[in-house]
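Hello,

I think I submitted the nicotinamide-adenine-dinucleotide job twice by accident. Can you confirm which output corresponds to this input? Input:
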Amino acid sequence: MEQVSQELNLTLIDEVFNLQKEKSLKMRHSPAVQRIALLKKLQHWINEHQEDIRRAIFADFKKPYPEIDISEIFVVNSEIKHAIKNLESWMKPKKVSTPLTMLGSTSYIHYEPKGVCLIISPWNYPFNLALGPLVSALAAGCTAIIKPSELTPHTSALIRRLVEETFDKAQVAVFEGEVEVAQKLLAKPFDHIFFTGSPSVGKIIMKAAAENLSSVTLELGGKSPAIIDREADLKDAAEKIVWGKFVNCGQTCIAPDYLLVHRSVQPAFVEALKTQVEKMYDPSGKGVEKSNDYARIVNVRHLKRLKHLLSDAENKGAQIYYGGYTDENECFFEPTILTAVEDHMEVMQEEIFGPLLPIKTYDAIEEAIDYINSKPKPLALYAFSKNSGAIKRIFKATSSGGAVANDCVLHFLQNELPFGGVNNSGLGKAHGHFGFLAFSNEKAVLQQRIGFTASKPLFPPYGLASKKIIQSLIKWF
Ligand code: NAD
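Support: Only one job matched these inputs. Its output is below.
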């Protein structure tokens, strides 16, 4: 039975891919108004089905409705609005200046759609991370096949319904399923692959893309640090970090993974964190498990992985300052603050992706900078300080996909900024104009005049005159 459905999938993938290939040729010269109409259809479906979206995501991991509204529905909606507002100007060919050596010609960059694109998305923001890239693909004039995550089946089914009710499959299609489906899709010669997920799977995607020389955007993860300088406003920093770390139950690619805190402020800061966790998630004192505002871990496998990280850290000498309670039946993992952590603990070696917050201390800022620079470049880096000089120093001395001063996570919502990682945390950028560019080929167009041109005197046979011209070109241009 399974084999039959596998074969069926394979045939369907071929059929849809060929349909999209044909369609993509027509989309190559699609005007802004046609693309905007597709974006408006998507926007309309989302607006009309907000309750269905909430129900599906809640069914997957009990994400609180306000969190769904802000981090899934609002984010996609704002991406659509931003694209609709700016699309005409993004699509306009960009004229570039002409050097003297090219006198008589004109040049411009033409933004043509890459063509048939594959979007593979993860489970942690299952709606936002599948639909956000689709907005950019449609804005750029591409067709797209989406492979949502198998770990959030309710949301994946909803995305499929959305797409089937909104688009022709020659324009957008969804293939649900596990790794096998992703692998079958990856065998096709896509013009672009937009992958969001872990660095280890990112490497597999890049290898598969290499077979067809498909271009890739890899939105990956890793360990994003937050530095708490000795001149930080501790209460303000604690409020922001507790929200950024524990929203979505810590399952956020740009959540602060661990903290580097100046030794002089460490005791006061961990206390501020604890106060803030209680204020946000346990105001009645009955336990965080009673809060309606705290999501759950996506499945028992991930809960066990996190429990292992915690027990490994404890066995090696870390101390639980707050939290530590778990309930496997409910996939519940309490917000947990860990102190006295050391590098040899697994919690400091792999991306945590859950509500465990390890804290390391440092004495001089160079120590914190050297520590970050000794690790793979993070997706995001956060620095908290009232001293703007200290923040500048940290940002100048480190490399990361994004950097935020005195806040965390929020740069995801700023669609005028490129979003993405660097090396281990990702390749390429997303959101707004940068998402449009990711799905566009920046075609270089040079328009030459007919008749005499600046380059003709250089054609062979190479006489004394042409040699002199070449020498003066080298000297003067
Ligand atoms: P994952 O890499 O396990 O899976 C992502 C997608 O890849 C899923 O659709 C899955 O089916 C598919 N996949 C898994 N194994 C595959 C294989 N061998 N071949 C082809 N496809 C395969 O990631 P996840 O667990 O869903 O998500 C968590 C990771 O994603 C974390 O590392 C997190 O930091 C990262 N992430 C990054 C961003 C970002 O914007 N940079 C956003 C969210 C999550």
